[in-house]
Amino acid sequence: MYSNNRQAQKRTKIEGESMRNDIILAGVGGQGILSIAASIGYAAIETGLSLKQSEVHGMSQRGGDVSSHLRISDKEIFSDLIPQGSANMIISVEPMESLRYIPWLASEGWLITNTVPYVNITNYPDIKDIMKEIEAFGNHIALDAEDIARKLGSARSANMVMLGAASPFIDIPYEKFEKGIRDLFGRKGEDVVSLNLKALKAGREFTETHKGL
Amino acid sequence: MEKLLLLGDEAIAQGAIDAGLSGIYAYPGTPSTEITEYVQKSKFAKERNIRSKWSANEKTAMEAGLGMSYTGKRAMVCMKHVGLNVAADAFINSSITGANGGLMVVAADDPSMHSSQNEQDSRFFGNFAMIPILEPTNQQEAYDMAYSGFELSEKYHTPVLLRITTRLAHSRAGVKRKTVRAQNEIKLPTNLTQFVLLPAIARKQYKVLLGNQKNFEEESEKSEFNKYYEGTDKSSGIIACGIAYNYLMENISNSNCKSPILKISQYPLPRNMVEKITKECETIIVLEDGYPLVEQALKGYLGNCLKVSGRLDGTIPRDGELNPNIVGKAIGMDGAQVKPAPGIISPRPPSLCAGCPHIDSFNAMNEVIAIYGKGKVFSDIGCYTLAALPPYQSINSCVDMGASITMAKGAADAGLKPAIAVIGDSTFTHSGITGLLDAVNDKSHITVFILDNGTTGMTGGQDSSATGRIEDICEGVGVEPEHIRVINPHRRFDKENVEIYKEELEYEGVSVIIPRRECIQTIGKHKKEQKSKEKV
Description:
The complex is a heterodimer. Chain A is α/β, with parallel strands linked by helices. Chain A has helices spanning 2-16, 33-46, 95-100, 127-135, 145-152, 158-166, 174-185, 190-210, and strands spanning 20-28, 50-54, 65-73, 87-92, 105-114, 140-143. In chain B, helix 1 crosses helix 2 (33-41), helix 11 crosses helix 14 (324-330) and helix 15 packs across helix 20. The two termini of chain B are 35 Å apart. Strand 2 (50-54) of chain A pairs antiparallel with strand 7 (171-176) of chain B.
């Protein structure tokens, strides 16, 4: 797995001769995907990179499907939206929502998703079928982020577990993510910061070791 | 100068603050809400005593902004595209009175109707008013335009329209600030009849506006926001407006596209630049987010003046928001291969939150509808519009702010029994009160439900302008006190609430039922605020 991740990093650098990560964040309105976006954003700025991040406000926030397009580069970024077929990864905090954005993913892109379903509709598909679709996807990381977070102290830091799991695929040094979390959660106190740092680390370890191929 | 990470909306707010803004006036509406919220939350704005509370509606906001401009100070008025319809009377006439202190009107359009009932293009309103229009390409331009737009406004004593779309409003990027400018002092207009639109004066003022058209065009010609990029391939030229320019550059920045490009971000159209590109290129493709305003202008009525392609000839879909894929296809660039999403995904439409008071209001409503029959509920704009969807399917209309009461009245006048209106507290104070007065004056047989959750819910829980005074307003308008019923919309009281619904539906006059329980989203927020207050 780790060697794969190295390859993933190399790939973006060789092809464009410049650094670019296009990330789709996915979830359900109210799940707080913007906290992941903000953490990556802080880390990207800290690294001196350009950033564009589109968000969803308004009606869809009421329990509908939501996504955020996050683009990081060392060059000027033009479009606020990621073109279809070109995202490096999808980070989803909900399994069915991870599949909704596959048209945006590049052929060798990564699908990184939480496995806990958020069921607020009557026709939610069988979770087994969803997991089959995810597993059929070559480059995927699927983890129960809530369980990992709960064991660390609070299920509320599940989003930072997801960020940790995605972090090896993002061309930003790990310590910048830690700094990002300190900046983002600093005013909530040291306990919250340290819980989220632990969650970040646990997510990263999941990707690096648990799935070690 | 300092670099900030800002939404397009926030960049506009920061630009205005730094340009010496004295007051911002607005009613919340996606995607414009965050402009005013940014000013409300800004410590710097507070120190500078910038006025920023929510207005009752876009018309009152526009008029208050004009009043501040009258005194010589700089004012900004913000709204979503359909809000400009509400403010239109004041807006159009403000172009005739002209401005004194800088006056900038921001309209945030919503192509693809992410959170709106239409996708009208506010540039047409700007043209209609015959004032300069600014349309930023990115967050930095949004800041720069908010900053320099006031100078343009003061130079020609004209209001300026700043038009953005959802994507820019709600996307974040780094923004460099400019030097902070002091606010203007009060300085009344030199001509104290300028704002008196009596016919004799209005005719004069209108000539001033007409005379300014040439100046506005010259400003567009030399604007830093409009740019002509020479190209060697004259077979086709590209005109890209506002955010469409980003989608174009996304496609061609690493390609060998040699077409001449005209980037337009300030209107009226820069005539010489447009003439140059149309003269030197065999065909023109127009990329614009919204309606085909520029395309239509170039094509002419019969469409035979120039070879122009865009939304009108199907090169680009006639409706909906642009994106990099649509633009790429239009200019003949092959996009990356796209895998379809698996078929098992279910749609996940927005829904009322768990614990929302509207849920109980509509469950009771459906019990009553079962008795009186479907098709008699006129509703309005807000979270409760979601009651049109399953599992409720209770409401039969959602048109414009306040239309529930007046449509129910019209239907009652026609003999529909019962005629029911459902409106939220904030929408009621925005545009429902005058309609209620009409109904009272006619003693129309309607029952108005004012769902009072104490906030403007859909846009994120902004203050509602008459919290705690709804029944007083109804009584003041002339609804009989015994037919103003305040209830607690909760399952526990369902049985007695349904009885009250039935009693008032039977009353042959205007009755008002106010189901009152706080929005589940703001309860938490308010509790937190209360706690921190207690700590202090």
